[in-house]
Amino acid sequence: MQVEEVMPIEEMPLEHASEVIDFKFHTLIANIPSPLATYELLRESGAPYLNTLSNPLENRAKYLVEASKAMNFGVYMADFGYALLNVDNQKALKYYAVSRTLAEDLGFGAVLDQVVNERLIDNVGNTDSAKVLINDAYKALDKYLRSNDQQKTAGYIITGGWMQTQHIVLVMIDDAEAGLVMEHLKEEVYKQQLHIGNLITFLIEYQDDTDVASLIEQLVLVKGAYDQLVDSVDVEGEKIKNLKSTISAMRNQIIN
Question: In terms of C-beta density within 10 A (0-12 exposed, 13-18 middle, 19 or more buried), how is residue 13 classed?
């Protein structure tokens, strides 16, 4: 039986290549958990709020190119959501402000303004309203980036937000005193094998970009650490320490 060769995306007719990218992007967005969904799981598990895990605000000055700006927009928005959900109101406002400066640089500051600005002050301290606000912001950004053919930028944002969120989760479950937290989150950690695979598959469509190619190389290393997990029961001991170390190393490269 002859195996049909798959045409490289750069050789496909433009409309076909666009369909492939849209399909992979939809698959990624439809499945990868938002930072907010993950933080909800942390709250349900009884995990403490650790406000020292955020990307320092002063790092903003380091982000000078599109890739670092977009990834750290994702990181800072994840930190904004983490603070807002845990009613750390002053910190949430500061992290939204720094996220907004990156959004402006990336060309979609007005999108955030339309969804967030007036509602933020009114909803600070109201956890349920804050969740709606954050979800609306992500939906508006998704719609804008898709309609303006900026899926690559969206890929950077998703990478930053996902990496920061997993960093927080893994710090929590590696805590020797957080046994109950670990049990509650084991399945969620194991599921990330699928999500990082989808992220890599999507980014491969842009691997001719040297920044994307470098990012894929790092993500492949992270996926290797996830692939050591046979099932959710395996989320413990040296494997979880290795995963935490690998995630933290890549996250530190993103934010520094």
Answer: exposed
Rg (CA), the chain: 18
Tell me if residue 167 falls in helix, strand or coil: helix
Mean pLDDT rounded to a whole number for the chain: 86
Domain map (residue ranges) of the chain? 12-255
CB-based contacts of 219, cutoff 8 Å, min separation 6: 159, 196, 199, 200, 203, 250
What residues contact residue 200 under an 8 Å CB cut-off, 6+ apart? 216, 219, 220, 223
DSSP 233: G
Q: What is the mean pLDDT of residues 116-144?
A: 83
pLDDT at position 99 over 70: yes
For the cut 90, the answer to whether the pLDDT of residue 8 exceeds it is no
The alpha carbon of residue 80 and the mean position of all alpha carbons in its chain are separated, in whole angstroms, by 13
* Coil, strand or helix at 245: helix
Give the whole-angstrom CA distance, residue 55 versus residue 89: 17
CA atoms within 13 A on the CB side of 89: 9
pLDDT at 179: 60
153 vs 65: CA distance, rounded Å: 12
* Separation in Å, CA 14 to CA 10, 20, 24, 119, 160: 8, 10, 16, 40, 29
Least confident window among 16-25, 52-61, 83-92, 123-132:
16-25
- Number of H helices and E strands in the chain, helices first, is 11, 0
